[in-house]
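=== RUN LOG ===
request id: a7f3
mode: sequence -> structure
chains: 1
length: 336
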Amino acid sequence: MLYQSKIAGLGYYVPENVVTNEDLSKLMDTNDEWITERTGIKERRHIKEGDGNSTAIMGVKAAKIALERANIDKDDIDLIVFATLSPDYYFPGCGVQVQEMLDIKTCPALDVRNQCSGFIYGLSVADQFIKTGMYKNVLLIGSENHSGGLDMTTRGRGVSVIFGDGAGAAVLTRSNHNGQGILSTHLHSEGKHALELALKGPSTMHWVPELIEENPQEDIPYFPYMNGQYVFKNAVKRFSEVIIEGLQENGLEVADIDMLIPHQANLRISQFIQQKFKLKDEQVFNNIQKYGNTTAASIPIALTEAWEQGKIKDGDKIVLAAFGSGFTWASAVINW
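=== RESULT ===
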């Protein structure tokens, strides 16, 4: 017997520390016009030293809200799935940290490393476990602490102005209503482009002291690298393909989309997709202007905000889509 899974509760958390484009202009050669024109971002949130936040802790804060809204006790969680590219430690993963912090009884905790596509990959994992009947309630979290690993100088501005910190969470459970819930998920990757958007070190191949010794200071490879134009070109192509794939799988048309929530990578990408599909402003939700790109956290943060603002209602057809490092891309179609 196959069950239907649905999202029963949503929550998000972002640090209180707001970093504006003007703030960044004091650290690097940039300005509000330059950043806004290229990314659409006006501000982002960064963890501040002493505020008690980390990737796992922000995930816990988002999870508590999602659990309360789902009206599901923490000890009824059968599986924890945690998506991030910025874990607190190399190991163990953030999933077990969340389990300990929430005092959840013994259950499996699984960490997903699919960067910007991480939340949808995690959603697919949770959906399949529920559909097969193996688990009933799954806690899914996407959380990122980017600010601690960015090059906050002119050298790194092409990447560093884009990213912010935050977390989003969803509680998935079995649906009692026929047709309500996650209709399908679609996952892809193309590894030949992996190094077009990557962080090569520090890693088990290149530790920090080794990098500092071997490389000139002006070319530090332990900050993120992004081939911006190449990523943009591939993103708009794959976004389109994976959205259409999800619609066709479920016999839907573009006109059937009540809300498209794209990964908040760049406002220009979202606008390109909106124009291509001729979607109205009320059919697409963007909040990158406020939070920047929070990678695995961006979709659950945006999904939660859209729901909180009453822009998602029962029976709506929701499409989630993401593209990012790997290259990986994914979509999900949901009957809310």
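=== NOTES ===
The first helix runs from residue 21 to 25.
The mean pLDDT is 94.
=== END ===
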